[in-house]
Structures are given as C-alpha cells and as structure tokens.
Specification:
Blueprint lengths: L2 H17 L10 E7 L2 E2 L2 E8 L9 E3 L2 E4 L10 E7 L1 E8 L10 E6 L12 E3 L11 E3 L7
Parallel strand pairs: 1-10
Antiparallel strand pairs: 1-2, 1-5, 3-4, 3-6, 6-9, 7-8
C-alpha cells in the first residue's frame, strides 16, 4: 500500500471511532452504606425508583453496603424515590410449588416498614459528577433518615 493510501486509511478509521459513541441517557454508578436502627442491613435491596418513568435501578445490600456499576445504574440528572427492602425468615415453611419431592420453602417477611418501602418519601437526585453519587443512609423504623 502506498504511503498516501495508508495515511488516508488511518484517517478514515480514526474518524469512524468518533462516530461510535453511545447515545441516550448517561447512567451512573451509585454506592454507599445502609444502617437500619443502628445496625448495617446485612441482606436486602435498595431501589432507585424514578419520578419520571426512567428505568429503576436496584442494587443488592450486603453487609450494610451497596455498589451498583454505572452500566446498571440510575440515569444522571434525574430524581429517584429511594425504597429499602430486607426480607427475614419467619421460621415457618410452606410446600414447594415446584412439585412432589421438592424441598419446602421458607416463609419470608419484609422487615422494612412501608414508610421506608412502598410509601417512601426519600428522594435523591443523581449527579452528573460521579464522585457525588455516594449515598449513605441511616434510617429508622419511623421513616426518619439521615
């Protein structure tokens, strides 16, 4: 290949790279800690539910911490209602719906009150600046949050 043709090919390939940018809303990483009545939430979920129809984001809470990568995160510059969930075993079991011989299933109960779940009024806005999307929650049964 002649030097001029090689240079032209490099220019074309380099310019095409700029055309492959993703379009659409920018999603962001969110992370932080969740403390409920003075103790870390050991196993649960936190839901970022949009106030405008944008897709929700729902990271798991493990050992009092959640961390959701940007590719699965909420949309930047949007507001979200924050809802908490943590299920606990009741000690009761029910027959497994999958059929004969299947092990019984544990009966679970939601430990978060509705004021922190279905009736939550906690709202956070996702920043376009990644370092500002750490949200730590100290929540109480009463629905108070810090």
């Amino acid at each position: 290949m002649k030097p001029i043709a090689s240079f032209a090919l490099i220019v074309v390939v380099a310019s095409l790279h700029g055309c492959s940018r993703e379009t659409g809303p920018r999603t962001m990483r969110v992370w932080g800690d969740v403390i409920f009545d003075g103790k870390p939430v050991e196993d649960g979920t936190i839901t970022f539910e949009s106030t405008d129809g944008s897709p929700p984001a729902q990271p798991a809470i493990k050992g009092g911490h959640y961390d959701l990568p940007a590719e699965f995160g909420p949309v930047a510059a949007k507001s979200y209602v924050i809802k908490f969930s943590a299920m606990a075993k009741t000690g009761k079991t029910v027959p497994n719906l999958m059929g004969d011989g299947a092990p019984t299933m544990d009966v679970l109960v939601e430990t978060m009150p509705a004021v922190l779940n279905s009736r939550s009024t906690i709202v956070k806005t996702i920043s376009t600046e990644p370092e500002k999307n750490q949200f730590n929650f100290k929540i109480r049964k009463s629905g108070d949050a810090e």
